[in-house]
Amino acid sequence: NSFIAIKHHINGFPVESDFELKSQPLRLSAHPGSTDIVLKNLFVSVDPYQINRMKTLSPSHASSSVTPFITPGLAISVHGVAEVVDSDDSKFEKGDIVEGIVHWAQYSVVKAGESALMKLDTLEFPLTYHLGILGMSGLSAYVGLFDIGRVKEGDKVFVSAASGSVGNLVGQFAKLHGCYVVGSAGSDQKVALLKEKLGFDEAFNYNQQKDLKSTLTKYFPNGIDIYFDNVGYEMLEAAVANMNPFGKVVVCGAISEYTKSMSRKGSALNMVDIVYKRIKIQGFLVSDYLNVFQDFKSKTAGYIRSGKMKAVEDISVGVHNIPSAFIGLFHGNNIGKKIVKLA
Ligand code: NDP
């Protein structure tokens, strides 16, 4: 069984030499009486948050983290779609297609509860959709916009990393909800996708802007009601400067801060502005919202069927390509949900 491990903790931008492809013999049958399930991993997810699990464990990290840290040399747990090869758990049988926590590996031996394993209720859509538009990315967009942002028809919504997995779905949901939507992304090709294929009202390449604050003022002459933040730092500061009174900042992620080896000193966030404009800033974790997963999934499946939402995916092939797929997230190489096909 081949799998990807980190060689050591990573405290900045990840590079290929931080990773190794390891292999170990694998038992392809479950231990009788063990409730083990042996999975052949078909598709695995590649997500920015994993870098935060790869850092050197500090006491503040340890107390704030809800996902376990990654140990160098060991297989790395991730979301995936897999086929059951053998099962000693009566709820699963050989041939079932499942989603849940697997590994950056060809095979995984798991227990249903620990891996939140679910049989796919439909094979109507490509299996990859269960990692993106119908999976955790979609749920993050949905929960962030509707539960945290409490978006209303007519709201003016800004989303960063808008061509990424979560970002493009935030924009699509917001458009379906009757909002004015602007996205930022790192290339002209991504900007074109947002405007021409995904129905965003406007989009801009943030790498080509001299001053993000005035760029946002240009796109939001009447202010921003909801900022869906995927990147943090300068973009967050520029968005806050353009927020309307009672605006909401939905903090989904802060990718520009994940790879800073030193935490940034101070903050240029204008706190007085936040007070006087009564801005609400709230983070969230998608894992707290699994109770709305089925609701979200059936609504989104309906939108896909009727052509109202589109999946944007970016797929690499082979376990050995997982590190480059992962590293690429921090350089904007992906368009849409980054996935690695294993089998
Ligand atoms: P994406 O598919 O958006 O991939 C990451 C993208 O981020 C890149 O393609 C790149 O696009 C952009 N990016 C990379 N580095 C920077 C930078 N320094 N500044 C600005 N943009 C950058 O990933 P996801 O959709 O999976 O995740 C998006 C965000 O949501 C992440 O912060 C992630 O951690 C978070 N997240 C949070 C969840 C939660 O429960 N709170 C759940 C899932 C995701 P570009 O070319 O536009 O720069």
TrEMBL record:
Q: Which residues form the Enoyl reductase (ER) domain?
A: 16-340
Give the source's domain of life in one word.
Answer: Eukaryota
- Give the record's keywords alphabetically: Oxidoreductase
Key word Oxidoreductase present: yes
Which Gene3D superfamilies does the UniProt record give? Medium-chain alcohol dehydrogenases, catalytic domain, NAD(P)-binding Rossmann-like Domain
The name this protein goes by in its record: Enoyl reductase (ER) domain-containing protein
